[in-house]
Amino acid sequence: xxxxxxYKLDKVSNRIRxxxxxxxxGKKLLDPAHTGRLFLIxxxxxxxxxxxxxxxxxxxxKVYGTEFDLEMALNLGKALGTYLGEGTVLMARDARTxxxxxxxxxxxxxxxxGVNVVRAGIIPTPTLALLTREKGYSAGLMIxxxxxxxxxxxxxxxxxxxxxxxxxxxxxxxxIYISGExxxxxxxxxxxVSRLENGAEIHIxxxxxxxxxxxxxxxxxxxxVDPGNGAACVLAPYLMQKLGNKVVTINGQLDGHFPGRxxxxxxxxxGDLIRMVRETKADLGIAHDxxxxxxxxxxxxxxxxxxxxxxxxxxxxxxxxxxxKTVVTTVDSSKVLDEAVARAGGTTERTPVGDIQVAIKIRExxxxxxxxxxxxxxxxxxxxxxxxFLASCKVLELMAxxxxxxxxxxxxxxxxxxxxxxxxxxxxxxxxxxxxLTEALPKAMGDVQDVLTVDGLGISLEQGWVLVRHSGTEPxxxxxxxxxxxxxxENILTTAKAAVEKxxxxx
Length: 507
What we know:
Largest sheet: 6 strands, mixed
Structural class: alpha/beta
Number of helices: 17
Low-confidence stretches: 1-52
Strand order of the largest sheet: 4-8-7-5-6-9
Distance between the termini: 19 Å
Number of strands: 23
Strand content: 15-25%
Shape: globular
């Protein structure tokens, strides 16, 4: 909804005239009774209900043309420049069709505040995050909608320590954005724009120092890489080649329409990769999402491995060597991870969904490893951003050092049946639906053992669990459930879906 047309003068006051704030966030009002004094009507809660919060789980992510436009990009750039005050921002983008013009608008906004911009072209999000720290930039800006469909666009913000903007930083940015009170530099003090051309190569060279390159090369592994027409096209195949693998790439051309498959790498969308691995007798399959902050692995037999099982594999190895005994994951990860970590002598900490939440907790607890079930892996000894490329290196290194296939390695990590579903819910209904579910869902599920509200509504059952939470990136309610048997998990999902749909239809 565009609030430019949402408020009439007579609905507020005949004494008030208004000016437009940045699109999507209401009006700044001028009261003639206080000549020249501007004040902001506090309507943020109402605006959030109507349009959705500016920042979601990670950064800003919206549908281009209806929820996001170039005016918003321009003002986000101004807000970031105002927030920083000075310095230089590293900016990159993924392959989305809207990426370059959004980058141009953001650049204009940033330099108008006197802050410099370095344009790095199309590179993966983890590359941007690493370079922001290694090159000493004030912040990193990634134009992407991650794994969302091609009609989405957005922006992810990275701090100078390679960690994403924390919630309090996003809140300050949003406050500046809403106020419209941006720093304005004079013509001779605007920021300058330059380019960084070799970002992917820098990242590859750094990654090769983090693993036993010679050992991996000695095995001559056959690896199938599926970048999904996203930003990993410029890095993942070349990294695998540098490690001495025989590499076959599918969906390896940059294309913001994502013609090869949907951007989110899930078993349902990885049919071509699975077939290629089986038919070529490859040792490993690797799939990335649109901005390459996620990776999903496929075994030599074509099994798509859930991210939480791979986290468990990495965690067990890390616990053998590290001093820390803490592993961090999100509320939607399998109990298999907790059990594997416990057997290895460690403990698991849970956070809300989002890689920044995992990174914050890793730093706070000095944890040894962390990640998300969707395919996010954080190696704190390297940096605090998701690092799918280092994860790929680690899988190959572990295969090479043990002489086992990836299927044999991951076979040591049990698997419980887990199912997911999405229920479409308009953004303006999300809060009401989740509020109603706090009472309705436990009643519907029956054998409730415990209820957690770390992120959404997590219900532990006598056999299994269910998590219901609203998406921070799409107009949906997500349902995740797990149980010891397939029949049980199907029953849990059916019951939970019916409860959610009943509440959605009643609001």
